[in-house]
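User: Sequence for histidine kinase below. Tokens please.
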Amino acid sequence: MTQEKVMNEVELQRKKRIIQVFWLGQLAFLLASFHPILTEQRHNLFFLFIFSILLCFAYQQAQQNNLCRAANIIIIVITATILTFSWFNEGARDETLLIFPALITFAVLIGSNRGLFVMLFIIVSNVLVMGYLNNAEIIIHEVSGSGFESAVVTTIIFCVVFYSINILGSDLLKANKQLTQQQELLETEVKNRTKTLEQTLEQFIKTKNELADADKMASLGRLVVGVAHEINTPVGIAITAASLIQDKNEHILTSFNSNTLTRTQLQEYLAATEQTIKLLDTNLRRASDLVTDFKGVAVLSEEECRSVFTIGTLLSNIFNHLQSVSDKERFKVNIICPPNINAYQDPAVITRIVANLYSNSVKHGFDETEEGIITITVTVANSIIALTYQDNGVGVPTSGVTKIFEPFYTTKRGQGGTGLGLHIVYNLVTQSLGGEISYDGTFTHGAKFDISFNQNMLSHDQNLPTSH
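Assistant: Structure tokens for histidine kinase:
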């Protein structure tokens, strides 16, 4: 709330109070006119009519937002009304004078200091003059206590009341002003702090995005370096083998052209060529496999590949196939999954995820285990499928827990491990399934992976499409 808005609200409140007092005064004039009408006191009715018209000017000034002038008009008109009836009727009656403290309070709260002191001067002078004239019997009011001594006492009481109300009203106005200023200061402070927090949040988001971009670039750099390093070895061996074959071909060709080629030389050449060709084949296949794995890092998930399927059935089919091409006697698979959990996802993606996790367990987890046990547990809650994969193998070293999903991280370097399997799993879960995967470093009886993804890839709220 700005200072201008606060001031506008204060002015509107003052205007509202002035108009309320105006209508209250008009109502008082209306009620007071009943007695003159019934008793045919036309001069009193005339005075009421005149003062009622004069009071209308206060309403006009208030509507024009001249609030101080409107308040002064109300104070002077009501003061003049009371004093007029006091002079021409029965003097300063006690019940009549009770209206003045209310007028003082009104003037103080409205902030009309000029009207307040004008009213004080008029009332005090009139009461004293009226008391003096009654005491001198120049005019005679039948009200008891209308003499000069009574007028002095009334004036003293009136001044004490005036002073008390004025002090109290001033303190209230001062306190209200301080509260308003404090409110403005607090609102300004809140606004400044909110702006600072917004700027800090923007900077935090910007920094976070920059760090994410830097991390992506660093990850891409490590990936490229890893690919170059992994492929460099088999390709280098293949180049060396090709060079050996070329040298032997030139040597055997020279011997053949000079008719000095012996049977033994030919046999040695054929044996060496066979070994070199096998070496070439092995390393070129190794390079091809690396390229294939590297292509698997890039996840492409097409909408038409998704379909409705039962998770339990899919997992059973996957492990039946995997165990048929591996050492079935060594590995036992337990699938804990309710039969009614369906999903609208790409079954091929889930197949690749489970196959890579299974391959990771076989290659890295079960070297020191006589009987490998793999357990998969599936649950669903709020359309989120939670899949837990665990084995009873050697697990992951503590130093490798934070790097387990990085490309080319492997504990089997030079033993057939490329370090791309779990990185591919991470990309498939986060990109194709739109889910999350984490490794449970607190699990001490092997390796444990927690995977979660949407049951319905379309939306959290939509129902599963109907299978065809």
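Residues 118 and 326 are 110 Å apart (CA to CA).
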